[in-house]
Task: structure prediction
Amino acid sequence: MDKLWAMQVFARVVECGSFSRAAESLDIANATVTSSVRNLESYLGVTLLSRNTRTLRLTDEGERFFEHCTDLLRRVEEAEASVRDQKTSVQGQLKIEAPVGFGKAVIVPRLAAFSKAYPELSIALRLTDHPEGLIESGTDVAIRIDSVSDADLVARPLYQAHYVACASPALLESIDVPGHPSELDPKLCLGIFGHTRFSPRKWLFEQADERVEIEPDGRMHFNSSDALIQAALEDQGIIFVLDVFVNKLISSGQLVDLFPDWSTNGRTFFSVTPQSRFVAPRTRAFIDFMMSTLDSERRPSVATQIKLRPGRDG
Result:
């Protein structure tokens, strides 16, 4: 029996809370997982997992063994990584999960440069606004917005985005350009709405003791930042969108930031990895690459508070 492999399988079963999910994440047969754990229990002469058709829990012996397993497996990975050259150790497949808008605007344009830097690495990027558990899905690193729903996940602030009101130069040439947020015509403002309703979110601007709130009432509203930005590029109206999605368009002059001196609310993007594992070189390389390429002035402090929602993610 390969004891190290058996310990890896056992630890994955505990992390996933299921034999079948562990098998899926390891890409092996359910029977292989079951026999591996049974052989380990037989070798140790104890029952590690108490299980029936609906529940799975660690025995007292299992809890103690799991603690030792996770510590040992982490040390093994660290030992392996320490003897590899950093460049050649960044290999294998990197599995990334990200929100659709952030992935398309921020990650996808940078993948070519990242891939060129690490030619032995393959990348699998899943774009979704319905995130899955990292361990169950075998994800190496995920991008989360504002909050992390599992205290066992390690979240690192990646980007602090703020909303900007912007429009195309052609549209601004055809209207009286507002010099103050209060001068915005709601009929020209295109809004964005959430997945549970069709009414657009209000826009909020703050400066010193002033506070201006705008309720967009234009002819078009969307639940997609991509669609909203495309409408603005087609001179259909003024939009209020996170800067991370339009920074390049503003820099190139395709859109104009109307109120750069006003403060708006924002959202924080975090890179998230499982806490119980040593961070693989490929995962660390990706996080470091993203940090180095994002606008440092918009990057949040590492002291940024991470809100925790009830429930588990992994």
Q: What stands out?
A: The longest strand covers residues 153-167. Residues 301-314 have pLDDT under 50 and may be disordered. Residues 3-82 form a domain with the Arc Repressor Mutant, subunit A fold (CATH 1.10.10.10). DSSP finds eleven helices and 15 strands in the chain.
